[in-house]
Amino acid sequence: QVRPVESGGGLVQPGGSLRLSCADSGHTFAMYAMGWFRQAPGKERVLAAAISGNGGDILYADAVKGRFTISRENNKNTVYLEMNSLKPEDTAVYFCVAVNAWRTFVECSGYGCIGMGGYWGQGAQVTVSA
């Protein structure tokens, strides 16, 4: 099984922006809901944002709402996470995940989807620091 591959991480100053990309060619991309999770040092991996297969449904964690934007281009098998107004507490490894049912994200979003299964990427480090 080909895994999703994240790119675009790096070091950014507080208040800055970054865009993460996740290329996923391991299955029929448009049939899968996609999510971005993040894991800060010493903490659980939690959901930041998710988008349905056709892009019509989106949800965000409260911590990123209004600052992050998730989107996808099905013809490129790619999902994006645009991150603006970054804060030091956004520092984490960001993971991309594919699941075959949108309701998976809906049902677990109340607790950050901790422990959720799916097809996971290797992660991309994002560091927000002056």
N-to-C span? 39 Å
Give the low-pLDDT segments.
none
Shape: globular
Give the strand tally.
11
- Summed up, the helix count is 1
Secondary-structure element string: EEEEEEEEEHEE
Largest sheet: 7 strands, mixed
- Determine the strand fraction and express it as a percent band: 35-45%
Radius of gyration, in Å, reads: 13 Å
Q: Can you describe what's shown?
A:
This protein is mostly beta strands and 130 residues long. Helices cover 5% and strands 43% of the residues. The chain is built from 1 helix and 11 strands. It has one helix at residues 102-108, and strands spanning 5-7, 10-12, 18-23, 33-39, 45-51, 58-60, 68-73, 78-83, 92-99, 119-120, 124-128. Strands 2, 4, 5, 6, 9, 10 and 11 form a 7-stranded mixed β-sheet that branches. The chain has a 4-stranded antiparallel β-sheet with strand order 1-3-8-7, with no helix packed on it. The longest helix is centred in the last third of the chain and has 7 residues, at 102-108. The chain is globular and about 40 Å long. It starts with a strand and ends with a strand. The model has no long low-confidence stretch (mean pLDDT 95).
Which terms summarize this structure?
130 residues; mainly beta; seven-stranded mixed β-sheet; four-stranded antiparallel β-sheet; 1 helix; 11 strands
Quick structural gist:
This protein is 5% helix and 43% strand.
